Amino acid sequence: MIKKYTVGINFYKKVTPHMFRHTFGTLLLEAGVDIKYIQHFLGHSSIMTTQIYTQVNKGMQKEILATKHPRNNFKTNVYNLDPNKG
Question: Residue 25's closest CA among 47, 6, 5?
Answer without folding.
Answer: 47
